[in-house]
Specification:
single chain, 14 helices, alpha/beta, five-stranded parallel beta sheet, about 40% helix, Rossmann fold
């Protein structure tokens, strides 16, 4: 059963190798497109039949991803979206892009990865390459996936190849698309690395081989812990400077003029997206195995997760100054996506802000041009709201408007002219206005 890596490498270079991508979300779908544009045949796997039906019609369920770009590949048969995982036996490459969330106690939830790995094992055959792209703790590929795959009797590095290459997708970024972002690659064996590096060499601007899967897994965590810690720093400075009567955004702008030794990070109502709120805690959990307490990482997480409470406190203070209680106050949240110009609500601080306000008795509504219906969130099962039409009447009847996401389509000058009180968490409104409070 032993398979030479050169055989698969040749198939990759000549585009004879069929690529299978498991998980057609914010990471998997752009990856599918990138392989297609580089001449590969792709089978896209997902358990959500609605997604598959949508893709088969040449439509997209992600705001910034135009589904019509896939139509020519569907017509030619180069792209096959499916829920039939038996077709895994027909592909040479299997790339796993499934969620890796936290459970209720902030412990890693690898259930999607492990279930997918067991499914892959059912159809594993000699000569295949399996790559995990989901963010996880160091050791997952070798300690969790490898034993499951080798239960088949096939041996990694000889009969099949196993690697880890962390996704670096930035939803909505039109400058750094999948093909323009360097790809870190680690293999379980040198042969695994060689095959995986060859694969990504075909589709991205640069591959960065590292000595092991553990190094590649740790690289992804470092990238997002770096961001988490620095976001926490500026969030803390925002709260300190607010008490001192100093505008933190003006401070950041001034500091950014230094051409060395400084990198700007910006405060906000909390952090969102699948990566930054989640990834640091994967290392926190794993560090316990080596008897280490990650105080710095956990402190950053504590500060960032408290920011929605800070926003609500500032809102309550501003209402109190105007003789209005939070209970019964009509509050509009602008934006429930976690960042501007996307429809991605994963871990959005807006959801927490809405929940806190509702629990305090406020009458909360929201507007987001990209999220017509806000519901179905695991951590917010009772949240079920529809986006309101943003007009003069709506703004004028609100006791407060919270700018939680600064979508480019918002006309903030017009919003300032209509609303009686605005809580700006994104520095979206420039200039000084008595009824605009920074938070």
């Amino acid at each position: 059963m032993k398979k030479s890596p050169e055989e698969l490498i040749q198939k990759i270079i000549t585009r004879e190798a069929i690529v299978g991508v498991i998980g057609l979300g914010y990471v998997g779908l752009p990856l599918v497109k990138t392989f297609l544009l580089n001449g590969f045949q792709v089978v896209g796997f997902d358990v959500d039949q609605q997604k598959i039906d949508c893709l088969r019609r040449g439509k997209s369920y992600i705001k910034y991803f135009p589904g019509n770009e896939l139509k020519p590949f569907l017509t030619k048969g180069n792209f096959q979206p499916t829920t039939d995982f038996q077709k895994l036996s027909q592909v040479e490459i299997i790339i796993i892009c499934v969620p890796t969330p936290l459970d209720a106690h902030r412990n890693p939830d690898l259930s999607y990865v492990l279930k997918t790995t067991r499914t892959v094992a059912e159809y594993l055959r000699p000569g295949q390459l399996i790559v995990l792209e989901s963010t996880t703790y160091p050791g997952t590929t070798e300690e969790e996936m490898k034993p499951i795959l080798e239960e088949t009797g096939l041996v990694v590095g000889q009969d099949f190849f196993l690697a880890y290459s962390p996704e670096r997708e930035n939803p909505g970024d039109t400058r750094y698309t999948t093909d323009k972002i360097p790809k870190v690659v680690g293999g379980v064996t040198p042969a695994c690395l060689k095959v995986a590096q060859t694969l990504y060499d075909q589709i991205v601007v640069k591959t960065v081989p590292v000595s092991s899967c553990r190094v590649a897994e740790a690289t992804k965590l470092l990238e997002n812990i770096f961001r988490s810690v620095n976001i926490a720093l500026v969030n803390e400075l925002k709260m300190i400077f607010e008490r001192m009567g100093i505008d933190v955004w003006e401070v950041i702008e001034a500091a950014s003029t230094k051409p060395f030794g400084y990198m700007p990070f910006y405060p906000g109502p909390g952090y969102g997206g699948h990566c930054i709120p989640v990834d640091p805690f994967y290392l926190t959990w794993k560090a316990k195995e080596v008897d280490y307490s990650t105080k710095f990482i956990e402190l950053a997480g504590e500060i960032n997760t408290q920011m929605p409470y800070y926003v609500v406190d500032r809102t309550i203070e501003a209402l109190n100054d105007r003789g209005k209680a939070i209970r019964g106050a009509k509050i509009l949240v602008l934006g429930v996506a976690y960042k501007k110009d996307v429809d991605d609500q994963r871990e959005s601080p807006s959801l927490k802000i809405i929940q806190i306000l509702q629990r305090k008795g406020a009458l909360v509504s929201y507007h987001d041009p990209y999220v017509p219906h806000c519901f179905g969130h695991r951590d917010y099962p009772d949240l079920d709201l529809w986006s309101e039409e943003l007009n003069e009447s709506l703004l004028r009847k609100m006791d407060a408007v919270i700018v939680a996401t600064d979508h480019s389509v918002y006309d903030f000058d017009w919003i300032v002219a209509q609303a009686s009180l605005i809580i700006d968490t994104r520095n979206a409104i420039r200039g000084t206005h008595k009824h605009v409070i920074k938070a």
